[in-house]
Amino acid sequence: MNSIPQLILNDGNAIPAIGFGTWPLDDQQAEAAVRQALASGYRLIDTASRYGNEKGVGLGLAASDVPRKDIVLTTKLRGSDQGYDQTLRGFDASVKRLGLDYVDLYLIHWPLPARGLFPDSWKAMVRLRDEGRIRSIGVSNFQPAHIRQLIDETGVTPAVNQIELHPDFAQSELRDFHKLHGIVTEAWSPLGRGEALGNAVVAGIAEKHRRMPAQVILRWEVQLGIVPIPKSANPARIAANRDVFDFTLDADDMAALAGLDRGHRLGGDPDIYEEF
Ligand code: A2P
């Protein structure tokens, strides 16, 4: 089993180049899947208060013999916990459910710009980071205007922005903005919820490299410096998805995959989407 390379965040902390996603697994499924993922070599595990599975994720971590210090555990602040005091409380509730005393990466799940509370949440997260309860702070589903507002109001740049990204929706403009600010791009639904797997271009490249379509897509993301966090509940697919560090896509493959972008968003539009 090849070990997973790491990227260095703008705060100096390291993050694995691929992670394991847990949406929409329930507690019981998440516990089993996280155990499986850790046994398969994943060290970046992603959950959220909103997923309702932090307890199961925490049990999966506790059941594994991987040392806590080797794991990068991510969770996210839900919409109903936005605001300064609410964020402090929401974070406490998450760590309690997880059974942990610190979180490696804490993200604002959605900006909810109409509520105007995300800068206050960010200030609370900076405090939690300074207190040592969070190692790195970041955002999810943020557009450039939202990130600029955080930087202008606090001087603190997110370490990560976790966004919807897959071959159909390659987000190249947002990635350029991230590069400019030293923000690592994480990809949720990196396989396009499985939709991208049946694409003929992907299938052709997979055949050429004798790999699975999912591995080709995840490798494309890794080669672009994006951190994909594929979800699977299937042990064989969990293992296969992290096994993308012993082959390389050539320039033609990369160009063909880039050509699949149709700007096709599957999830909510961050400028208007609200979930609590
Ligand atoms: P399953 O849990 O049965 O493996 P995304 O991470 O883009 O949201 O995609 C997740 C979906 O893709 C899930 O339905 C998952 O189903 C499926 N999936 C994950 N890995 C693979 C794979 N290697 N091959 C085929 N389907 C996969």
Structural notes for this entry:
- Helix 6 links the parallel strand 8 and strand 9.
- Helix 1 packs parallel to helix 2 and helix 7 packs across helix 8.
- The protein contains ten helices and ten strands.
- The chain is globular and about 55 Å long.
- It has an eight-stranded parallel sheet with strand order 3-4-5-6-7-8-9-10.
- The model has no long low-confidence stretch (mean pLDDT 97).
- Helices cover 39% and strands 15% of the residues.
- Adenosine-2'-5'-diphosphate binds next to helix 9.
**Helix count, DSSP H or I runs of 4 or more residues:** 10
Widest sheet: strand order?
Answer: 3-4-5-6-7-8-9-10
- The secondary structure category is alpha/beta
Uncertain stretches of 5 or more adjacent residues: none
Distance between the termini: 40 Å
Estimated helix fraction: 25-40%
Bound ligands: adenosine-2'-5'-diphosphate
The main β sheet shows up as: 8 strands, parallel
Shape: globular
Q: What's the multimeric state?
A: single chain
- Taking all Cα atoms into account, the compactness measure Rg is 18 Å
- Total beta strands: 10
Note the run of SSEs as H and E: EEEHEHEHEHEHEHEHHEHH
Portion in strands: 15-25%
Average pLDDT level: 97
